[in-house]
Design brief:
The chain is an alpha+beta fold and about 110 residues long. The protein has one domain. It has a six-stranded antiparallel beta sheet with strand order 2-3-1-4-5-6, covered by helices on one side. The longest helix is centred in the middle third of the chain and has 15 residues. InterPro entries: EACC1.
Length: about 110
């Protein structure tokens, strides 16, 4: 099952080294009305020897009209604030946004491939 292409631009979200955190983020985001039918949890395809990866390690979000990007930013910020463990989340599209939370600080960086 995929996301229909007419739903808008796609973002890919990954959580470094923690598939349980990605599942938690997926569960968190699917509570948002703006993401109903726009979320897909899937393997990144990083398996060995061309095989698909066994873990669900990429969350795909279709952004539609109506401010879904702002909803994602707010919801992701709230989710990170409520985490009790260190976590690094990467949202990919141009620009690529990376955010992390540790017990000492929070950081965010934005990059765009040339």
């Amino acid at each position: 099952m995929g996301i229909a292409p007419e739903t808008g631009p796609l973002l890919r979200v990954s959580v470094a080294d923690d598939p349980d955190a990605l599942q938690s983020l997926f569960d968190w985001l699917r509570r948002e009305d703006e993401f109903r039918g726009r979320l897909l949890l899937e393997p990144s395809g990083g398996g060995v020897g061309g095989e698909m990866g066994g873990l669900l390690d990429v969350l795909t979000i279709a952004l539609g009209s109506g401010g879904a990007g702002a909803v994602l930013a707010r919801s992701l910020s709230t989710w990170l604030t409520n985490r009790h463990a260190n976590v690094k989340v990467t949202v990919s599209r141009c620009p690529t946004v990376a955010a992390s939370r540790s017990t000492r600080s929070s950081t965010a960086t934005t990059t765009c491939p040339s």
